[in-house]
Amino acid sequence: MEDNLVTIAKFEDNFEADLAQRLLADNGIQAFVKNAIFYSMMPGVFPGKVDLELQVNSEDEEKARAILSEYQNTPEIKRILVRNDVLQEGHFLLTSGRHSANYLEKIHLYQNPQDTARVCEMLSDLLVDYDFDTVVGPAYGGIVLAFETARMLEKGFLFTQRIEGVMTIRSGFDLSKVKKAVITEDIITTGGSVKEVITTLKNAGIEVVAVAAIVDRSTEEIDFGCPFLPLLKMDIPSWEADDCVLCQNGIPLTVPGSSDKKI
Ligand SMILES: [Zn+2]
User: Fold this and answer.
1) Strand 134-138 to 99-104 pairing
2) Looking at residues 203-217, what average pLDDT do you find?
3) Radius of gyration of the chain (CA)
4) How confident is the model at residue 71 (pLDDT cuts 50, 70, 90)?
5) How far apart are CA 121 and CA 155, in angstroms?
């Protein structure tokens, strides 16, 4: 049994470790705190010298990491999206013709490199324990994220782009030393583009070990064949125009602006 335990987080503080353990328990995952006995014998002595290790069975690892990440990152990532006016509230006409109360204008984030760097730091935290040599981003949003995340984790960088509809690795990159990659993306809606990136990389002999994203706004569970690590999971409802509650309440409809890819 012991052999199956993996450490998914470290805490200096017993309160924090206990909170995380209870959060996982609420989600049906049994977690253990290593070094807790040692800590309780010496609380407050040499603070920070004894790491409390939060451990779970390896089969629960992915789910447990996702739950902790959401808990730890949600307040800050939401603040960043709101203060950069990425996450907008109102009454929007989507390209699909449906109406929605929320719109994500992701380009506003990239206009603020400092906040973008902070987001990449959070993505780095999600990815740091995985074994890979390169961070890959699909053009355009994923490029900024992949580059900065790769810089922080001291890894290589690549990007993919769609040429005449086909997802391709940007020509000219030297792929001879690229074996294992992670993918960074800003907003995942269906996961279709990322799946194309995974296939493209696989065809080039590159294995994808994880996908990290800022927002997962998918309505159905996505299987990338590797761990999917979003910083924020959002449920953004939309309606057919005839059924729209916002129309029924007389709220004026707006057409979102400059995004290259509307939700
Ligand atoms: Zn409407």
Assistant:
1) unpaired
2) 96
3) 21
4) confident
5) 14
pLDDT computed for residue 69 by the predictor: 84
Measured CA distances, 27 to 38, 71, 229, 248 (Å): 27, 12, 17, 38
Tell me, in angstroms, the distance from the centre of ligand 1 to residue 99's CA. Answer: 5
Q: How close is the Cα of 5 to the center of ligand 1, in Å?
A: 50
Helix (H) or strand (E) holding 125: helix 113-127
Domain boundaries, given as residue ranges, for the chain? 2-59, 84-248
Q: How far does the centroid of ligand 1 lie from the alpha carbon of residue 98, in Å? A: 8
Q: Among 137, 210, 203, 209, which Cα is nearest to 170's?
A: 137
pLDDT at 39: 60
Q: In what order do the strands lie in the sheet with 87-93?
A: 87-93, 99-104, 238-239
> What string of DSSP letters covers 86-101?
-EEEEEEE-TTS-EEE
Beta bridge partners of 93: 99
What residues sit around ligand 1, an ion, with C-beta below 5 angstroms? 99, 244, 246-247
pLDDT digits (tens, 9 = 90+) for 136-193: 999 988 999 999 999 999 999 999 999 999 999 999 999 999 999 999 999 998 899 9
* CATH T-level fold of 84-248: Rossmann fold (3.40.50)
Tell me the CA distances in angstroms from 154 to 51, 124, 145, 150, one per residue in order.
25, 10, 14, 6
The alpha carbon of 250 and the centre of ligand 1 are apart by a number of angstroms equal to 8
pLDDT recorded at residue 44: 58
